[in-house]
Automatic annotation (TrEMBL):
Entry keywords, A to Z: Oxidoreductase, Purine metabolism
GO terms for MF: urate oxidase activity
Top EC group: oxidoreductase
Binding-site positions, 5-hydroxyisourate: 159, 176, 219-220, 246
EC number per UniProt: 1.7.3.3
The protein's name: Uricase
Pathway: Purine metabolism; urate degradation; (S)-allantoin from urate: step 1/3
Amino acid sequence: MSSLPMGPNRYGKSGIRLAVVDRSRPQHDFTDLEVEVRLQGDFDAAHVDGDNSGVLPTDTMRGTCFALARDGIDSVVGYGVRLVDRFLTASPGVDRALVTLTQHPWEAVVVDGAPHAHTFRPAAGGRPTWTVTRDRGEQATVTGGILGARVLKTTGSAFSGFLRDEYTTLPETRDRVMATTVDARWGTTGPDADHTGMAIDVPATILAAFAGHDASESVQHTLHVMGTAVLDAHPDVTWIRFLLPNEHHILSDLSAYGLDNPGVVYLVADRPYGVIEGVVAREGVTPEVPWDG
Ligand SMILES: O=c1[nH]c(=O)c2[nH]c(=O)[nH]c2[nH]1
């Protein structure tokens, strides 16, 4: 058997679930994270010769995530920077360390009109996510994001004037329900930006633009409006990428029952669903587009 050289590769751990309690104030903070680690570098010997001497076990990556949370996490991105720095130090063969941290947000339960000090429930509005990447000898880069932010509007959305062929049966509409679950990721100016603030403010800008865009001709049209609004309002965001499922709500045909349906009853079709993806970037900025290649 010929020994072919090793192609591109990386390795790491996914699904590292950990939670950190900050008890320093009467109102506790609860940070619930899922961490992914990926290390990239010279691992030819491991693949070609079975030589593990340069392989930091993925179990050690899990242990590192827990150990580096021992004294609390200043901010999620600060913790991510400490993690990538540690992996570059601990594993000399690594050229690039990457961690993705996705938060499962909890909010204090309100009791008698006040937030309870140590009782929480899942918060709505999606899961904030950050990726910290560091190449050896370079500054860390940070992307932020929001996953699973579900929104719907009952008017202000149209889809008409589209290309038709012999398989097109979709009726045109000037007024429909538009629903999606926003997954967005954005590039930033670097680790020193206010990533915790942006995790709240960028989704707020996205939702305000979704709500305000009542002249929407399509999900694509609204994607561009939302992206433009984010770049206008947040100087530390350099590009933003969206993945927007079009969660169809189809006006139900009630004519068999002798009834009209003036935009009251909808069939909620969970599949198939449209998928609208796109990036809006500042001039001169090359965004990360993972579906290229
Ligand atoms: O906003 C939309 N964009 C499309 O590309 C599309 N295609 C479709 O069937 N419905 C819609 N809606």
